[in-house]
Design brief:
This protein is α/β, with parallel strands linked by helices. The chain has helices spanning 11-22, 57-64, 78-83, 85-105, 140-159, 184-194, 217-226, 246-257, 281-288, 291-294, 297-310; strands at 2-6, 26-31, 46-49, 68-71, 110-116, 162-168, 170-172, 199-202, 211-212, 214-216, 234-238, 244-245, 264-267. 41% of the residues lie in helices and 18% in strands.
Length: 311
């Protein structure tokens, strides 16, 4: 089976590519290298440097004839989307629509869409938040991720295109870029190592920072492999169900690095939400087993320690 991975040179996408190749699949990568890196590209993968918005994408689909498309390519910054909603929509919504048109024209069997459980639910009343909760996106980034999910449902209804949506929580791991709010673990490690003050963004009534659900990238790879043959026409949260404030995360990392450097308190940024934690019962029951056990606080501490060692 041949899989085309958009964004396959990026942080998460490159790990997914590695997982697919290790499982014996052929992989084609489409990435414009805006945030991805050449050194992340698996030598066994075929690589095309191209925008997902490009009309030339159709030529790659025709030439390579993939069976499945895994869509990781995205603009990933929430504050950027607030400042530049049109550009975010052009990449995350219209760019994905271009991918879907290529899928329709080339009779792709299935699309695995990477969505955001950490953003599309908004300030949810249900907590941890399950897939049954009606999304309330509070940023253009979240809105365009949800629009992409709606596009998928339409393409299934109209053309019979199969799909699985993976709604990630906050992913961390090797190859993460220490820039932007999405890479907070990498940012804290880099700053503590280089003696740079880190910002701890927080709302006035929650001074220890926002609550997030941090999942290690290796668990995300497992979900992408399982999604090849499972989860048809379904939406799956991929996280841990464990709450961690930004302050707790910083303290854990600084303790592991044995660096006594306090963060700088800063105001929440446009588009930030106070709390995000995913209910992962569906992923545990249908796919992975006891994900909460696999990603408990002890294993998180161990994975962050290993991340510090290799960064």
């Amino acid at each position: 089976m041949k899989i085309l991975v958009t964004g396959g040179a990026g942080f998460i996408g490159s790990h997914v590519v590695d997982g697919y190749i290790a499982a014996g699949y052929k992989v084609i990568i489409v990435d414009n290298l805006s945030t991805g890196k050449r050194e992340n590209i698996h030598p066994a993968a075929k690589f095309y440097q191209i925008e997902i918005r490009s009309a030339q994408l159709e030529e790659i689909f025709q030439l390579e004839n993939p069976d499945i498309v895994n869509h990781h390519a995205a603009q990933i910054s929430v504050p950027f989307s607030v400042k530049n909603p049109q550009e975010d929509g052009d990449i995350n919504a219209l760019g994905f629509l271009n991918v879907l048109n290529c899928c329709r024209e080339n009779k792709i069997k299935k699309v695995i869409l990477i969505s955001s459980g950490g953003a599309i639910y908004g300030e949810a009343d249900e907590y941890p938040t399950s897939e049954n909760y009606a999304p309330r996106p509070l940023s253009p980034y979240a809105i365009h991720k949800l629009i992409s999910e709606y596009y998928l449902a339409f393409y299934n209804h109209q053309y019979g295109l199969d799909y699985t949506v993976l709604r990630y929580s906050n992913v961390y791991g090797t190859r993460q870029i220490p820039h932007g709010e999405a890479g907070v673990v990498s940012i804290f490690i880099t700053n503590l190592r280089e003696g740079i003050k880190s910002n701890l963004y927080a709302f006035p009534d929650e001074p220890d920072g926002m609550v997030r659900d941090y999942v290690f990238v290796k668990e995300v790879v497992k979900a992408n492999i399982l999604a090849l043959n499972k989860g048809s026409l379904d939406y799956i949260n991929i996280g841990t169900g464990l709450e961690t404030t930004t302050g707790q995360l910083y303290s854990m990392i600084s303790d592991l690095m044995n660096v006594n450097e306090k963060p700088v308190r800063a105001e929440a940024r446009p588009g930030d939400i106070k709390r995000s934690c995913l209910n992962i019962e569906k992923a545990e029951k249908i796919w992975i087993g006891n994900l909460k056990y696999l990603c408990n606080k002890r294993s998180r501490k161990r994975s962050i320690f290993l991340l510090i060692a290799v960064n």
